[in-house]
Amino acid sequence: MKRVLGNGLIVTMNQNREVFYGSVLIKDEVIERVIKHDPFENLKDLKNGIGEFDELIDCTGQLILPGLIQTHTHLTQTLFKGLGDDLQLMDWLQTKIWPSEAAHTAETNYISSKVGIGELLKGGTTTIVNMESVNHTESSFEALKEMGIRAISGKCMMDYNEGVPKGLIESLEVSLSESERLLKKWHQTHNGLIEYALAPRFVVSCSDELLKASVKMSRTYGVRLHTHASENKGEIAIVRRRTGMENIDYLKRIGFLGKHVILAHCIHLNDLEVQHLIDSETVIAHCPSSNMKLASGFAPVHAMLQRGAKVTLGADGSPCNNELNIFMEMRMAALIHKGNQLDSTIMNAKSVFEMATIKAAEALGKESEIGSVVEGKHADLITLRIDKLESMMVPLNAENVYAQIVYNASSRDVCHTLVNGALLVTHGQLVNVSEADLYLDAKKAIINFIKDPK
Q: What is the pTM of this model?
């Protein structure tokens, strides 16, 4: 199958960060050619420069971009939008999110995952690092397989009762054995689109034994670790009281840092903790909209980037920002730190877009596979409309195009989404799923979580 994304403005994110008009030829799962040419008025002329192909997608008036990457999501929480507004983190978890997760069935978790994946794909996200809940993780993997997104995902692990509902607490043995079973079944499956990550929730809800055993299992199987760290001052106080250490210091002591580790948030850090993250090449998932809505604080993102930290972006879960929208996260990341630091020059649009594309791919060790529009890479690509009344009217070039993406665009401007060469969204609509049916399924499922639906 040869498919062409034709006649768009290509933002390559290649080594030279080239931006030019042209077309992308996809053969099966791979970008075969990236062709530079002046815009055609007649698309029939494309064949003269490209040769034969099976399908042409007209990208006139659109940007052709690498698929966007989010390094921290919770698909299990997608149905919970609006169930936990205007709360601090620990109250939010203990009174709303944990009880809701405990109420999931396999069916509702499957629906929650499908709705979340659909929103992500429609909004231009093609790769996620996802943390599920304690129960029914199998159903989420089934949704991942059906929907076709690229994902690193794992069952949430919790064995320590610090305000956690009984339905989410497992024994050490069960948590480890179920994680190992899922890992063996799902890691590196579905043509490589699905990988497994061990996912202890955070130090607050995990015993020392579980965290250390997760580190050992990660090394045994060569899979990633994914957790939360230093998101909230209340969380840090609990960790300090229990361990006598700062959060990152404790994780370092037990071996829970490294290039295979993804830590969500990392807001309240001292200088030594930041250095530990840099020295270990640990991946940091910055979730700006979640941090603002939960009033968790401002992560020292610019300072960490300046020192060489690997900082990427994620939307977190739907209830802590009400969208799985990478465009909102990019815009927030660019704006909130300027305001907080009183410096309009930091976190410029280009650097923020890098965090959602090639820098994220590098952080995940996938820079040879995804993150840029380069020949030989997987065809994880999106197109973005720039012909709307709300679009920037100035002619776009290699400098200001990033402002269009980060400051101006929204997820609703995404026109087409491809993952591994498969067209999953066209003209803003899911290709393989009835959105109307999925919406009705979700509306029925949410009744399980609210006593007095309105």
A: 0.96
Interatomic CA distance for residues 141 and 128, integer angstroms: 13
DSSP H or E run through 385: strand 381-385
7: left (phi over 0), alpha (psi -120 to 50) or beta: left
Return the residue matching tokens 């976190």: 347
Name residues whose C-beta falls within 8 Å of residue 268's C-beta, 6 or more positions apart in sequence: 230, 231, 232, 233, 236, 297
DSSP string, 86-122: S--HHHHIIIIIHHHHHH--HHHHHHHHHHHHHHHHH
Query: What number is the average pLDDT over the span 393-421?
Result: 97
pLDDT tens digits, 113-164: 999 999 999 999 999 999 999 999 999 999 999 999 999 999 999 998 767 8
What percent helix, strand, coil does the chain show, rounded to 5? Answer: 40, 25, 35
Nearest-10 crossing angle of helices 172-186, 137-147: 20
Q: 404: which DSSP letter?
A: I
Q: How deeply is 122 buried, as exposed, middle or buried, from its count of CB atoms within 10 A (0-12, 13-18, 19+)?
A: buried
Cβ-contact 58, 47 below 8 angstroms: no
Domains of the chain with CATH codes: 2-66+380-430 (2.30.40.10), 68-363 (3.20.20.140)
Closest CA to 297 of 232, 239, 234, 342: 232
Of 48, 29, 7, 65, which Cα lies nearest the Cα of 406?
A: 65
When the pLDDT of each residue in the chain is averaged and rounded to a whole number, the result is 95
State how far the Cα of 321 lies from the Cα of 306, in Å rounded to an integer: 27
Alpha-carbon distance of 357 to 23, in angstroms, equals: 19
Residues 6+ apart with CB under 8 A from 431: 423, 424, 425
Is 358 a residue whose pLDDT tops 80?
yes
pLDDT tens digits for 433-451?
Answer: 999 999 999 999 998 776 5
